[in-house]
Design goal:
Chain B: Pfam families: F-box. Chain B: This is F-box domain-containing protein. The complex is a heterodimer of chains A (about 170) and B (about 575). With about 170 residues, chain A is mainly α. Helices cover about 55% and strands about 10% of the residues of chain A. Chain A contains 10 helices and 3 strands; from the N terminus they run ββααβαααααααα. In chain A, a hairpin with a 5-residue loop joins strand 1 and strand 2. By secondary structure, chain B is of the alpha/beta class. Among the domains of chain B are: about 40 residues; about 210 residues, Leucine-rich repeat, LRR (right-handed beta-alpha superhelix) (Alpha-Beta Horseshoe), CATH 3.80.10. Chain B is built from 23 helices and 21 strands. Classes of the chains: A mainly alpha (about 170), B alpha/beta (about 575). Chains A and B meet through helix 2, helix 7, helix 8, helix 9 and helix 10 of A and helix 1, helix 2, helix 3, strand 1 and helix 5 of B.
Chain lengths: ~170, ~575
């Protein structure tokens, strides 16, 4: 089985099958590029991801492992056919996977999914964030996301006035 | 996939947190796409950064803004966001100044506008006068005045200028809409005739109700109990007096609009006239409409079928060069309405059939389908769910040397592939266009077709039991020799191939082994099992006769990011890939 070594920003190496790695658009491109530039077809590609730390990379690879038999979603499916995985409903595994994560980890996971071009993971993490916003009051959202109101003067009141037309609809 | 702007690990005080504003723009848009309007409005109130995130045009573009009350109108005016899709629904305006401010505030942003009964206002045209970005306009229940001053040429000129980008117009009218003035409709269509980018006109319910000149009258208001409410509107208004019938109709306006187009390059954008339901058409109105659309090469879509029945006695008026009809109708009605044998110039008859229509085919022996080919017309044969194989087999058993197009849309429970393949190869030898959908033929049957129908120029295969062998026969796919002896490669005139593999048995190697040697102009390939093709496959296709000839190419995407550079290798590609 052809393998690829994926190295995180903090130096941790993960040895995964190329088939699995190719579920990520970014890794797939890197592997193809390596193949083109390398004379030795048997050589093992090594890909360094300088923006993703080991803990997050491990989670991404874990998710890919679980979903390795899913069809690959095109990057622009969203615009064409509505939401991808997130709309189709998350599996129980996905829910269990995301359940213990705090929002900081989810944020990093979203960035990693975006960077590595893993659309299914991006969808379910965005959907998780959506569930933390929908149905909550402004204060609850601020608490959940540790936000502080930085509106000055009557700016907040002005924004509230702008919203009235739709909130009361 | 998506660009990354910032991927810093936020752990300033050791406690990681989620900050939407730190996400790349494209991810922000993706995330906000999951939220409903109310949640987005709440997000705007949390902090300035998130307000700016929500106010991005890309996010606001996603949702229509529906305004039904003056209060909402007043409040939306105060918004600093540039919304561009509005639905003004049953809006009753007492304060005209609000509407004026709305027009000034949003006129230049609106791209899509739906107006449902703007009662109390005569300002639709004043809105259009300011909407210079409008792409789609829908007017429902045209029971309001379009113009204050229909003869105001300056206003008309301004609207003409502004509607240059209008691509789609929808007009909902009903039998009650007799209140608007004929003159106004005339001017409206005159304006439309100058809208050079208009591609679709949709009139869901199209009827021949006279447009009548509106006579000024003072309505008597009997109750004023709710006059203090802001959205109050008068009720129990006395009916307008009898008004004179000028005989002008919406149909005539549409006809004039279509026929006034002189065929020059600037007036050929209209492609579709969608009239879902035609009712109360008198005399030969439908025939005139069909002829007008035919003359201007406009697709007349979604016509209800019984119109054809009424055409029976009016075919003498039919234009002699009527060669193409695109309609949706029951074939039985079409037969009753159109004396096909008299239409000597008819070349294409395209009938979109469904379950019931096909039942009609199977149960009605007197449909003159066998006569069609004597006129040299296209022969479209939908057999789906017919439940009567014998009739279809009977039709296929007649020798039809003048039939050039055959469409077999199958879903038979019983196998009939052997009989059909034999009949087609024996009786339809001059076919140039073959379309097989859900046919239960096996590879040998397909090979038999390719071997005998040497004139084929266009092949469409959807579903069915085909595998790689249907295209390459018993040759080794990896071997490039004897290409011309492979059954599918013998079709030297073939230029258009469309394959939809629903069983997942046609593989990438079949594309490499067979199609890349063919000089095709159009190639479409879909497969349930192949979601992407290898870079190697695309490179081989590009560096082969296929890559030099193909103009339209649609297939699973390449699994690499260099698709733009790759597709430049296809020298004649006219349409973007995918």
């Amino acid at each position: 089985m052809a393998l690829v070594r994926v190295i995180s920003s903090d130096g941790a190496a993960f040895l995964v099958s190329q088939r699995l790695a190719k579920r990520s658009g970014k890794l797939k491109t890197e592997i193809e590029t390596f193949r083109k530039s390398s004379d030795n077809s048997e050589a093992q590609p090594e890909i360094r991801i300088v923006t993703i730390r080991a803990e997050i990379l491990r989670l991404v690879l874990q998710w890919l492992q679980q979903h390795q038999n899913d069809p690959v979603l095109p990057a622009n499916q969203n615009e064409q056919d509505g939401r991808g995985d997130a709309e189709m409903g998350q599996s129980q595994w996905d829910r269990d996977f995301l359940a213990p994560m705090d929002l900081g980890i989810v944020m990093e996971l979203i960035l990693a999914a975006n960077h590595l071009e893993v659309k299914g993971l991006l969808d379910i993490t965005c959907k998780l964030v959506e569930s933390k916003i929908t149905g909550r009051t402004v204060d609850e959202i601020r608490t959940a996301f540790k936000l502080k109101s930085d509106f000055k003067g009557n700016e907040e009141e002005q924004t509230r006035l702008e919203n009235r037309w739709c909130v009361e609809n | 996939m998506m660009s990354q702007r910032n991927n810093e690990h936020e752990n300033g005080d050791g406690d990681a947190f989620f900050n939407i504003t730190k996400l790349p723009d494209v991810v922000q848009t993706h995330l906000c796409g999951f939220l409903d309007l109310s949640s987005l409005m709440n997000l705007r109130l949390t902090c300035r950064d998130l307000k700016n995130v929500v106010d991005q045009p890309a996010i606001l573009k996603l949702m229509p803004i529906k305004i039904t009350t003056s209060k909402q109108l007043q409040r939306i005016i105060q918004s600093k966001v540039h919304y561009n899709f509005f639905i003004l629904s049953f809006l009753s305006l007492n304060a005209q100044s609000h509407f004026k401010r709305f027009v000034v505030r949003f006129g230049t942003c609106i791209r899509k506008l739906i107006v449902h009964t703007l009662s109390g206002s005569k300002k639709v045209m004043s809105l259009l006068e300011c909407c210079d970005q409008l792409e789609e306009l829908e007017l429902a229940d045209l029971d309001f005045d379009l113009f204050d001053e229909p003869d105001n040429q300056v206003l008309c000129e301004r609207i003409i200028n502004n509607l240059k980008k209008l691509r789609k117009l929808v007009i909902h009218s009903n039998q009650r809409t007799t209140g608007y003035a004929r003159r106004q409709i005339e001017i409206f269509f005159k304006i439309l005739s100058k809208c050079t980018s208009l591609e679709v006109i949709k009139i869901p319910v199209f009827h021949e109700i006279p447009l009548r000149e509106k006579v000024a009258y003072e309505p008597e208001i009997e109750e004023v109990n709710n006059a203090f409410e802001e959205d109050w509107e008068p009720r129990n208004v006395r009916a307008p007096p009898e008004i004179e019938d000028h005989g002008e109709t919406l149909v005539q306006s549409v006809l004039e609009y279509i026929l006034s187009r002189d065929g020059s390059s600037t007036s050929t954008c209209l492609k579709t006239l969608n009239v879902a339901t035609i009712c109360q058409f008198k005399g030969n109105t439908f025939l005139k409409l069909a002829s007008a659309c035919h003359k201007r090469k406009i697709r007349l879509a979604d016509v209800n079928s019984f119109q054809f029945v009424k055409l029976k006695n009016e075919m003498a008026l039919l234009n002699r060069d009527y060669y193409k009809i695109f309609v949706s109708a029951k074939l039985t009605h079409l037969h009753e309405g159109f004396p096909l044998s008299k239409m000597s110039n008819l070349r294409t008859l395209s009938v979109e059939s469904s379950y019931f229509e096909c039942t009609c085919i199977s149960n009605t022996d007197d449909i003159p389908l066998p006569n069609l080919e004597n006129l040299g017309v296209t022969f479209l044969f939908h057999a789906r769910d017919s439940g009567n194989q014998l009739l279809i087999q009977k039709l296929l058993k007649t020798t039809r040397p003048k039939v050039y197009t055959l469409k077999l849309d199958y879903q038979f429970k019983e196998s009939c592939s052997n009989i059909c393949a034999l009949d087609i190869t024996n009786n339809f030898r001059n076919l140039t266009d073959l379309n097989l959908t859900e046919w239960d033929g096996e590879d040998d049957n397909y090979i038999s077709l390719w071997t005998n129908l040497s004139l084929l120029e266009k092949v469409t295969l959807q579903g069915g039991k085909m595998t790689n062998r249907a295209f390459v026969g018993d040759f080794d796919l990896r071997c490039n020799e004897n290409i011309c002896q492979r059954p599918f490669n013998r079709l030297t005139k073939l230029h258009n191939v469309n394959i939809e593999d629903r069983t997942g048995k046609v593989t990438e190697i079949s594309m490499l082994g067979s199609f890349r040697w063919m000089k095709l102009r159009s190639f479409t390939f879909r497969s349930v099992s192949l979601h992407e093709l290898s870079l190697n496959a695309y490179q081989l296709m590009a560096n082969s006769p296929f890559g030099k000839s193909v103009e339209y190419f649609r297939a699973p995407p390449p699994n690499c990011r260099f698709s733009n550079a790759l597709f430049r290798e296809f020298k004649n590609l006219k349409k973007p890939f995918g």
